[in-house]
Specification:
By secondary structure, this protein is α/β, with parallel strands linked by helices. Helix content is about 30%, strand content about 20%. Bound molecules: zinc ion (ZN).
Length: about 425
């Protein structure tokens, strides 16, 4: 049964092989890579169509869904009236960005029914040794931001230095600058370093903007060293260069004004909404203007609200909860009303997009059905626009996750997937 034995998953199966030859072939592990995918009959499930669950049957042929009954069926899978969703997607995380964390966390994704992850501040050299081991059948698909651009005194330098210190290693800025991230302080830096950045052929470039309106004041405060960002005035040039090589741009932002500047510069993805109340700012500085929201809609800018990650800030500043959550609810409600595309991303090292779905649900701006549509359809399609994912339709990738109960009635159902198929292969214990 090697054919079905991806060792990554602890999911319960109801697989009934109907073709004895299939299990013989599967006994030869060397041949696995060359084996055709099994033809599956997926019967008796209730399939999410973006609004409701509908009784339906599908076949998986060559890893793609079809309604046309194939001549040969290798295995019939009785879905037992389970609730079938396209797999979840986490559009903002960092927990696969080095070899150790990738080895530790990659399989958690599939176990949780999350097949797609965006790693939003990777660097090409660091991931080069293992990125080829991820993606495809039985493995989480990753969208990498292969290049991260910040200032020479900016985020994520502070995190890197703190991490080095904690590990008892020398904490020296030059070990990280133009290695872990690109330091772009001036137009001349961009001019000089861009050829190197472009060399890795990034599909996605991350830029760090941190309360840009008060950048000068920040730099007078030594405690903000390593947590600042690049000048938003450089963004139009960065976006133009990225788009010219076919890369999208995602922006880390801090205030409503940062979002306004990033959107006006043409970034494709705003990677946060409000995650904290920056020093010296108040709720009014976090509230998106109607003009910004209208511009996002006009340009098709995607925003990843990362509501769950407020937990880190609120743990240290519990008194700010009502203010911060109030402005988040207000912003989300107006973004939704305007029809701005939102994607689910957790930004949680120790959590997942399921936490984000719950956090977005707790704002009461979205119904569970809307959240499931965002997390299983809108988000994977925004991450992988060239693939047929996030939808059950003729020719779409045969990737499904089955649950025992209806997640539109109770989102905690997402914590217990029962069966999963990725690109036509059953993920098994
Ligand atoms: Zn992040």
């Amino acid at each position: 049964m090697n054919r079905f034995a991806a060792p990554f998953l602890a999911l319960l199966l109801a697989v009934v092989p109907t073709n004895p030859a299939a299990s013989q072939i599967a006994g030869a592990p060397r041949a696995v890579a060359a084996l055709p995918k099994p033809v599956l009959a997926l019967e008796g499930g209730r399939w999410f169509d973006g609004r409701r669950f509908v009784e339906d049957n599908w076949y998986s042929v060559d890893g793609r869904l079809t309604r046309k009954r194939p001549a040969r069926i290798d295995a019939r899978i009785d879905l037992r009236h389970r609730y079938i969703l396209p797999p979840l997607a986490d559009a903002h995380n960092h927990n696969l960005q080095n070899a150790w964390s990738a080895a530790t966390f990659a399989d958690d994704y599939l176990r949780r029914g999350i097949f797609y992850s965006a790693q939003l501040a990777a660097n090409a050299d660091e991931i080069a040794g293992y990125r080829g081991l991820l993606g495809g059948a039985g493995r989480v698909d990753v969208l990498w931001a292969e290049a991260t651009l910040s200032s020479s005194d900016g985020h994520p330098l502070g995190l890197a230095l703190a991490g080095a210190k904690q590990a008892g290693m020398p904490a020296v800025a030059k070990d990280y600058i133009d290695k872990a991230f690109w330091a772009i302080d001036t137009r001349a830096d961009l001019e000089k370093k861009w050829p190197k950045i472009a060399e890795s052929q990034p599909r996605l470039v991350k830029v760090i903007v941190v309360d840009d309106a008060h950048a000068a004041a920040q730099r007078k405060d030594p405690s903000s060293y390593g947590q600042r960002g690049l000048s938003a005035a450089l963004l139009p040039e960065i976006v133009a260069r990225a788009h010219a090589i076919g890369a999208r741009v995602a922006a880390h932002v801090d205030s409503a004004d940062d979002i306004d500047r990033a959107v006006a510069a043409g970034v494709d993805i705003v990677a946060h909404l409000n995650t904290r109340i920056p020093a010296g700012l108040g709720a009014a500085d976090l509230r998106l203007s109607d003009r910004t929201i209208a511009e996002m809609k006009r340009r098709g800018t995607v925003i990843i609200p990362t509501v769950a990650v407020t937990r880190y800030y609120l743990k240290a500043h519990p008194g700010d909860r009502a203010t911060l959550m109030g402005v988040i609810v207000d912003n989300l409600a107006r973004l939704k009303a305007a029809g701005v595309t939102m994607a689910t991303g957790s930004d949680l090292f120790d959590g997942s997009v399921i936490d984000e779905i719950e956090a977005m649900g707790a704002t009461r701006v979205f119904t569970p059905t809307e959240l499931l549509r965002i997390a299983t359809s809108v988000t994977p399609q925004a991450m992988f626009p060239d693939r047929r994912v996030g939808v059950f339709s003729e020719g779409a990738e045969a990737s499904i996750v089955a649950y025992d109960a209806d997640p539109t009635r109770d989102l905690t159902v997402l914590r217990a997937p029962r069966l999963a198929i990725k690109q036509g292969e059953v993920l098994a214990r």
